[in-house]
Amino acid sequence: MIAYATNQFESAGAQPPQISVIGTGYLGTTHAVCMAELGFQVVGVDVDDLKVAQLADGILPFFEPGLEELLRKNLEAGRLTFTTSFPAATTADVHFLCVGTPQRPDSPAADLRHLGAAVDALLAAQPKPGSLLVGKSTVPMGTAAAVATRLAAEAPEVLLAWNPEFLREGFAIEGTLNPDRIVLGLPDDPAARARAEDILRAVYASAIESGTPVVVTDFATAELVKVAANAFLATKISFINAMAEVCEAAGGDVKTLATALGHDARIGPRFLAAGVGFGGGCLPKDIRAFRARAEEIGAGTAVRFLAEVDAINLRRRARVVEFATELVGGSVPGRRMAVLGAAFKPNSDDIRDSPALEIAELLRTAGALVTVTDPAAIPNARRRYRELRYADTAFEAVDDADLVLHLTEWADFREIDPALLGGNVRNLLVIDGRNTLDAGKWRAAGWSYYALGRPNA
Ligand code: UDX
Fold it and tell me: Residues enclosing ligand 1, CB less than 6 A?
């Protein structure tokens, strides 16, 4: 049940702040919908006509459980609109900056072009004096200070805060409405700081009332919380994948190792699932951008280990290709391989830096006939990897396969009856790249089941 944040304004006879969300990608759309769900009047702004038209029609351009229903509900309630017009957003009291900061094509650093263009467009449209610009995008340290310098010169009455977002795809609504913490990076000037804090505490009143901790800090720390959190998570995953490499050499079982490590409350069990490693639009590019920025500000040595975190992660992909090659007898050309999974993780149609698709493509370029299936990501995969073959179901994908590779751990794949699936393949040979299939069940159904970092006998 969602407590409507705006009720408090109505009972106090005040108008709740109006909100604009600039950039309607994953983060911005989720934020806009959730703010409207809390009862705020929200306008989403984007330069992409098609995306804006789809959102205004209640069509979510990506897959996120539960979000399309909430989008439609709030459009119908009249609390949410979408536009390509920045002037239409200038009546808002709070502008959330949610544009993408992808990796630059020519370097590991973050590409801040969209962020710069969004600030340009907002300033050209002349936001209301006293309104608050809130950065939510993941940015290199120093970005907020640079935006603050621009505001001071061009729109001195507009306030700035940095409020990073930690949402995970597949859990985006929950992550926005009930975050683990709210981080507020605020300006140094005491009056500006107090005003920005008041506005943001009002916007996040329902989460704060239900006990979400608030960390109030400066711009640089707020920026750093986000990149440091992602660096820590990436390191945790690469740590267990490094242990998988050691287990392979020592004859140990990384899954049991992770269970035993996770019982130590100081370590904890989450993000210790060994397999083909991390992908997606955040962890890989964020650790690279973090290193690049740390180098620039003279702190490169401190995060040099992130190069190894990246290398361990990419090695897992190469290892699966090597393993697949060994299992089909050393020669890949002409071998039929079925890949279960295309999205970078389950409950998502996001294929950015997907380990599953990179492995599928490497096997295809080595000459294998690779067929990929995924419950949600096939349309995106088809657009990007045109030469892979695609099937709607796992049963079709494995038709006459020499080898099956399980690379994204959708529940649908876990629920497959291996005895039934076995009827469609040429060889009962499976690599479980995510360590989530029931090895005993697959073996009992006659399959030779192989996993990473686990004894394969
Ligand atoms: C991540 C952060 O979790 C989130 O806080 C931040 O805001 C954005 O980046 P997301 O990219 O949605 O979120 O995915 P996440 O669930 O963190 O998974 C990232 C990758 O790590 C996936 O490819 C996943 O399969 C992989 N992973 C995760 C593992 O390989 N092992 C694990 O134990 C956990």
Answer: 166-169, 230, 233, 237, 271-273, 275, 277-280, 282-283, 344-345
Question: Which of 278, 409, 434 should be mutated for ligand 1, with most atoms under 8 A from CB?
Answer: 278
Stated length of the chain? 457
Q: Which fold has domain 219-457?
A: Rossmann fold (3.40.50)
Is pTM beyond 0.85? Reply is yes
- Fold adopted by 19-217: Rossmann fold (3.40.50)
Atom of ligand 1 nearest to the CA of 167: 7
CA–CA distance, 319 with 326 (Å, rounded to integer): 10
> Cβ distance 10 to 16 under 8 Å?
yes
The DSSP 8-state label assigned to residue 216 in this structure reads E
Active-site residue numbers?
A: 282
Atom of ligand 1 nearest to the CA of 276: 30
State the Cα–Cα distance between residues 195 and 203, nearest whole angstrom. Answer: 13
pLDDT tens for the chain, residues 1 to 457: 344 566 666 666 678 899 999 999 999 999 999 999 999 999 999 999 999 999 999 999 999 999 999 999 999 999 999 999 999 999 999 999 999 999 999 999 999 999 999 999 999 999 999 999 999 999 999 999 999 999 999 999 999 999 999 999 999 999 999 999 999 999 999 999 999 999 999 999 999 999 999 999 999 999 999 999 999 999 999 999 999 999 999 999 999 999 999 999 999 999 999 999 999 999 999 999 999 999 999 999 999 999 999 999 999 999 999 999 999 999 999 999 999 999 999 999 999 999 999 999 999 999 999 999 999 999 999 999 999 999 999 999 999 999 999 999 999 999 999 999 999 999 999 999 999 999 999 999 999 999 999 987 6
- Decide whether 19-217 matches 219-457 in CATH topology: yes
Mutational test site, ligand 1, from 226, 345, 349, max ligand atoms within 8 Å of CB: 345
Q: Which regions of 300-444 does DSSP assign to beta strands (E)?
A: 336-340, 369-373, 389-390, 403-406, 429-432
Question: CB burial class (10 A; 0-12, 13-18, 19+) of residue 350?
Answer: buried
Domain regions of the chain by residue span: 19-217, 219-457
